[in-house]
Amino acid sequence: MLDVRRLRLLRELAHRGTIAAVAQALAFSPSAVSQQLGVLEREAGLPLLERTGRRVRLTPAGQNLVRHAEAVLERLEQADADLAEARSGLAGVLRIGSFPTATRAIVPAALTTLARRHPALEPMVSETDPAAVAHALRAGDLDVALVHAYDFVPPPREPGLSVEPLYVEAMYLAEPPPQPGALAAPGSVPLPPVPVPSGDADQAAVLRARADAPWITATPGTLCHAMTVRACQAAGFTPRVRHQVDEFATVLALVAAGQGVAVVPQLGIAAQGGPEVLLTRLPMSRRTRIAFRSGAGAHPAVAAFGAALREAVPPELAGSRASQ
């Protein structure tokens, strides 16, 4: 009989690529991971891994077993959800991953609703970049998470995970206000309040006109950084990055100080006050989804948090789910 814990290790190796990465993610030593995978091979009765020096890759039999492991682990999630449904009342820890703008704009109201309906449930929020969510969910470090994707950064298919749409945001080019007496750029308006111009700007032309400006992006390795770089490259240039900042409030403060231009999502500007910047709406969007392990969507705690999130979506975004 194959051991499900060893199947999980094989699945993680397939996604993470190295035994060292599996060991680090699951808090094992590399030798312990290798030992358990060796036991799994003996249980299977044929080689599952090919070792070349320090590198390891899955054999065709190993790849096929990973596909079965995904199905087995999904059924176990469904079984856990059924057992949780049979118990009376929700209790225990719910580990939630979220990115900063959603943590500020959506999550607090959702947690308030969750506490009122299920006071014995203990939500624990960790800010997690969407690029790291898949590994965290599969490793069991998170139970549910908010993730986002941009038009220029489509989400990769993640085996073992499921997603549900939550809302869609507009995207804006933010740039410093004009000097006194200067003419504002066509389609640009001051902040606050958040503008909703009629019609979308010609995105390539708008971005290309700022090709020589310094740019402010998120830090490399994040989806927000990739979005800005790829949007500019689609317009025909690579941005000259001056500052790398992940918090949009700080990004807007730097823009207002004349330090560069940036692309920001609707929730990144919706609650900001302070110095003015110019915003031009772009015909691109950021789509936010709820992610969880396949089979866990029916778990009462995950479903309850999802329902609370949907109620917490601001009115201006509440009608945007269909476009995902």
UniProtKB/TrEMBL annotation:
Coiled coil residues, start to end: none
SUPFAM superfamilies, alphabetized: Periplasmic binding protein-like II (SSF53850), Winged helix' DNA-binding domain (SSF46785)
Keywords recorded for this protein, A-Z: DNA-binding, Transcription, Transcription regulation
Gene Ontology CC entries for this record: protein-DNA complex
Top-level taxon in the UniProt lineage: Bacteria
Residues in HTH lysR-type domain copies: 2-59
One Gene Ontology MF term: DNA-binding transcription factor activity
Alphabetized InterPro entries for the sequence: LysR_HTH_N, LysR_subst-bd, WH-like_DNA-bd_sf, WH_DNA-bd_sf
Family: Belongs to the LysR transcriptional regulatory family.
Protein name in UniProt: LysR family transcriptional regulator
